[in-house]
TrEMBL record, chains A, B:
Annotated source species: Desulfotignum phosphitoxidans DSM 13687
Name of this chain's protein: Tungsten-containing aldehyde ferredoxin oxidoreductase Aor
Highest rank taxon of the organism: Bacteria
Gene (UniProt): aor2
Molecular function GO terms recorded: 4 iron, 4 sulfur cluster binding; aldehyde ferredoxin oxidoreductase activity; electron transfer activity; metal ion binding
Cross-referenced Pfam families: AFOR_C, AFOR_N
Keywords attached to this entry: 4Fe-4S, Iron, Iron-sulfur, Metal-binding, Oxidoreductase
Amino acid sequence: MGKLLRINTREKTLNFEKTTDAYAGLGGRALTSKLILDEVPATCHPLGKANKLIFAPGILAGSPAADSGRLSAGAKSPLTGGIKESNAGGLVSQKLARLGITAIILEDKPETSDFSLIVIDKDGIRILPADDLVGKGNYAVMETLWEKYGKNVGVLSIGQAGEQCLKGASIQQADMNGRPGRAHGRGGLGAVMGAKKIKAIVVDDKGASRVEIKDKEAFKAANKKWVEMLRKHPVTGEGLPALGTAVLVNVINEAGAFPTKNFRSGQFEHAQDISGEKMAEIIEKRGGVISEPCHPGCVIKCSNVYNNKEGKYLTSGFEYETIWAFGAHTTIKELDDIAMLDRLCDDFGLDTIEMGVTLGVAMDGGMIPWGDGKAAIDLLSKIGQYASEGKIIGNGAGFTGDALGLDRIPIVKNQALPAYDPRSVKGVGVTYATTPMGADHTAGYGVTANILSVGGTIDPHKKEGNIELSQGLQIATAAVDAAGLCLFVAFAVLDNDDGLPTICEMLNAQYGLSLAPADVLELGKSILNNEKEFNRKAGFTKIDDRLPEMFYEKLPPHDTQWDFTSEELSKTLNF
Amino acid sequence: MGKLLRINTREKTLNFEKTTDAYAGLGGRALTSKLILDEVPATCHPLGKANKLIFAPGILAGSPAADSGRLSAGAKSPLTGGIKESNAGGLVSQKLARLGITAIILEDKPETSDFSLIVIDKDGIRILPADDLVGKGNYAVMETLWEKYGKNVGVLSIGQAGEQCLKGASIQQADMNGRPGRAHGRGGLGAVMGAKKIKAIVVDDKGASRVEIKDKEAFKAANKKWVEMLRKHPVTGEGLPALGTAVLVNVINEAGAFPTKNFRSGQFEHAQDISGEKMAEIIEKRGGVISEPCHPGCVIKCSNVYNNKEGKYLTSGFEYETIWAFGAHTTIKELDDIAMLDRLCDDFGLDTIEMGVTLGVAMDGGMIPWGDGKAAIDLLSKIGQYASEGKIIGNGAGFTGDALGLDRIPIVKNQALPAYDPRSVKGVGVTYATTPMGADHTAGYGVTANILSVGGTIDPHKKEGNIELSQGLQIATAAVDAAGLCLFVAFAVLDNDDGLPTICEMLNAQYGLSLAPADVLELGKSILNNEKEFNRKAGFTKIDDRLPEMFYEKLPPHDTQWDFTSEELSKTLNF
């Protein structure tokens, strides 16, 4: 197996370590979560020296397997106070795999205020002063680093938000064009990187050998089936390539589950103006890119490039959740304003879901007017200016609600709820309440069977079946995150009996193993158990596994209400 | 027994309720904590409609018993998320007792933004618009209300901080001069009052009958012993009347337990400049008042009036903890600046301990320079200006540390540590860690045996005996808070075998009971058990009963460290 790269950010020293048996065969979220459980004191301060920031490619990373280029980042979260894994596309995962690095573990923290740059290539590791990058946004940082280290190096960096250790801070990854279009968004991991005074990490695999595949023929055959499966499924083969994830705007709005004006309604009267269809029309007219991959080897290609009115680049990786958060949630209906807010988040290094929800909460508290895109842009810009308002909103929805003295704040474990109202998509609501991550749709995407009729059909308004739905999805997702596969492969896997076996075939061919689907699900369970155990040690109880009181209000148009008891919810991850 | 006054703040309705058997004989903290446990859903949002704000006089309130005029305020705390009782002197407690009101329970919250004034007198209750008071500080509010309702009515009010629902907001009580010198300071109860849109409560007992005493002669005899005991003890009879609580500055500084520069040292080089001796000298020179009571019937008289250089009133009730928080903790050494900070807190309605610690944290994060009194006054003033900086610091030390991305924040359960370093006064350190209130010296004042040799002597630097010390004090304090007695009576009680029996004699004479000291201690235990139970239901675990990592640093000059394990601490309130 590969090796762990430990970097002491205070002493500026490093060492390589062979992975021990306990960690053999673990990658991505399986590895970050186990390392955090084993090495990070659960009660430590997330910004203190005892926390560790870990990056781990999935176990399929660097192989030719389609859509296997996601990198997991993990730490104790400054936002939730619990364990966190947040994965993203980009270039780093596959390059680390080729360099034989199973994980980067950033430890300790400097006592000085100087930031460093870490450069990793096949000849070794350099820890360099980053004075020229400090105070810069991710666009400038990545441009500088691509110029200096080559036009296709992988980059992980933080912007002004991470430098300020704000709880909404992301770690951005350079996309295939060297722009910060991909984000380890949720849970404030950028603040941990900021606390450790690492401005950026460059990963260059030039001259590195390919990842070893034990049985090349078998791998090729399995991957062929895999690619076909992804291409044939209507979501991964048609919907996502055609309109990106924003294909969901009209779908979720029609289902009455599109949270509007800080979760007061499930339908937004201006949904059309911010829909995937509208976005595709604008992109086409202005000469953007409707469909592009977020990492090499992706066949779904749900990313995009959105130009401004002058036909110049404005933002990329413009996603459904972002459009919802800055759109329906705040009642902003101008897609260009929403795109600018997305760009600012990528540049300052901020989670778009957290920031969109925060702006809605700020509007609820009277900080800026509802639906005012320009005011929202001005307020978000305060983060880049290191201003006091930025130190409020940059710390997220819970923090901003507290600053404004509000009692109606859509958070679980202090993390903002994403783009699906839990009252009308109860399968994802169960996930929000119970995942160790805090409110997170990607941890168990119940929208599948609730709305999209993928992997079966379960009534989104009723309790029945939704605990089980979330449980199954949370287990499968943990395994998918360990493999380094994009979550969207789940659409095809859920609708194909041959899906999970094909993933096993690829793993078996790469590593000479004989895994069966049951083994993969056991892995998923063990990941969740590790994460639950860390949170338990950090002081979490079943009281933390719940939605706030506001979700007992009725949601128009279907007048649905949240109605799960604590006892019911506690079954979700009890296995 | 008396009656409970319930006021629905949304409907502007009220009703009187006979106290049921379950609440018979309970007053002060015993009553507020039991009502909260029984009626407030532990997981509710503290600023939401399900929280209740309760005021309850102690069971000796209104009687001639010396120092029995403390009023308990209780709610689920916006600062800690747990149960809170915070008591203060002033005029309200005795007046409520004479009106036969055992507790005021403020329920629900309005949907509009209008504030109300509640006026309580013997003829009934009026809920009036408070438009003329909104936006005003407590000095102006109390002046207006004394002018309108009479020059000795009791007043509870909130300033700009409570209106903004800030977690550092206090509820101030008019002192005997109609000034906001007394505070229900800790835990942000002013924010709960603000959320319920109650700007002030006026309590007028004109025409009310005296509190009934069943055996007047026995009461008189017991109270006489009681007064003598208080007058003879060196702390309550000499130290506190001569220099106020600031008598402790030199004592605690010499013990090396005076937290300096955000808990980096136990000694402040300028302690002399902010000492009780120095304060008394200034007060005398400028024609202030060195010693006055905080409520009628107090024989200790540790309060004071501090004038400015021109000999005009500047502040009153100027306490040791305030002087420490704004002084040594921030390294501000000008007593006039500290007095101005105290005044601003009283006026805006803020806890001085929370705010002083917050300013030190803000200095640690570079918001203002260390030791700069003028900058501190400017920053604190932002709260009165409803500015963004105010919405950061007004939410307390934990919030401000988070806003600034710090990992060294002296809080327990999100409440700022008071004026005794837990590494060098371990008895009080155990209290900080384990009381259900969050870091609070008054919950179990281990300084007694640790530093003052009151009630025995226990080494403040060692573990031995300090769990037991804190346990005994926490039990006794809960009972004292239920009686409505000033905590300072504990000095005399701890050093007199006849102390607790004398309190029992007064209670027995007033109510025709036959309580023994063991009954009083059982009451103390039951209060703590109720509070622990509420916190457990709110999601607290033993993980919350600990000091932050920073207290594992060595504290000069004695190089003491915090060294209690979680297992040891968990014994403190296990009975």
